């Protein structure tokens, strides 16, 4: 019999999520308490979330997905390709990890995650071409030999860190937006998620600036960039189409408008990141809000 909610009788749509988290805990080879510690959540809160008396927050969903090596879309819907408010992820091949068994596989996956996270942070701060294997090893508290075991070529590790950055960005979109049915509200949230505030979002912008630069020179990264940027474009276009259908936006070509809006976000973000005088995050937000109000909403919604 399927799980029901507290109101009585209706299937609980979040039971699938809870079951998948339980599956990930078992797969990790850790106890529930150990898994909670790993994702930075109080064990009692994880326990309540798995019992259905508490909901995992967007940030907690992101952290579970990050630690377990899955997507937020899979956590919520059981499939990476499930239809949601964010476009379906592209199929981009990543290097296969070394062959391992049982507990070794779990430990190896955790070590790979730590290495990729360290590389991600270092690239964001110091730059793609300035990060050395020894720097990553030092940040992980391990040896260069361990880094080479998991990633024989430094280029493979750096590219994987860029893939990880793309995954995290879309995981955040799915986690934050999956409970937002209103297209107008969702568009404004999407824009907020693109503002390079100090901290995580600024590091993500730093990564993407470097992806753009490397993509101009590296065909392999060009494929990665094109696939993920298309997903971003499709997410915006889908939101615009839904807003038009709901009467929240004026009539226009959603594909063409998505191109205009994403180009404006990119251009303003570059100006903020490169420190152009007067180009602040707040000014970027105001410019984007004005564009949405005049070009997209067009007075159709108070």
From TrEMBL:
<dbReference type="Pfam" id="PF13977">
    <property type="entry name" value="TetR_C_6"/>
</dbReference>
<dbReference type="InterPro" id="IPR036271">
    <property type="entry name" value="Tet_transcr_reg_TetR-rel_C_sf"/>
</dbReference>
<dbReference type="InterPro" id="IPR010982">
    <property type="entry name" value="Lambda_DNA-bd_dom_sf"/>
</dbReference>
<dbReference type="InterPro" id="IPR009057">
    <property type="entry name" value="Homeodomain-like_sf"/>
</dbReference>
<keyword id="KW-0238">DNA-binding</keyword>
<dbReference type="GO" id="GO:0000976">
    <property type="term" value="F:transcription cis-regulatory region binding"/>
</dbReference>
<protein>
    <submittedName>
        <fullName>TetR family transcriptional regulator C-terminal domain-containing protein</fullName>
    </submittedName>
</protein>
<dbReference type="InterPro" id="IPR001647">
    <property type="entry name" value="HTH_TetR"/>
</dbReference>
<keyword id="KW-0804">Transcription</keyword>
<dbReference type="Pfam" id="PF00440">
    <property type="entry name" value="TetR_N"/>
</dbReference>
<feature type="domain" description="HTH cro/C1-type">
    <location>
        <begin position="21"/>
        <end position="75"/>
    </location>
</feature>
<dbReference type="Pfam" id="PF01381">
    <property type="entry name" value="HTH_3"/>
</dbReference>
<feature type="domain" description="HTH tetR-type">
    <location>
        <begin position="109"/>
        <end position="169"/>
    </location>
</feature>
<keyword id="KW-0678">Repressor</keyword>
<dbReference type="InterPro" id="IPR001387">
    <property type="entry name" value="Cro/C1-type_HTH"/>
</dbReference>
<keyword id="KW-0805">Transcription regulation</keyword>
<dbReference type="InterPro" id="IPR039538">
    <property type="entry name" value="BetI_C"/>
</dbReference>
<feature type="DNA-binding region" description="H-T-H motif">
    <location>
        <begin position="132"/>
        <end position="151"/>
    </location>
</feature>
<dbReference type="GO" id="GO:0003700">
    <property type="term" value="F:DNA-binding transcription factor activity"/>
</dbReference>
<dbReference type="InterPro" id="IPR050109">
    <property type="entry name" value="HTH-type_TetR-like_transc_reg"/>
</dbReference>
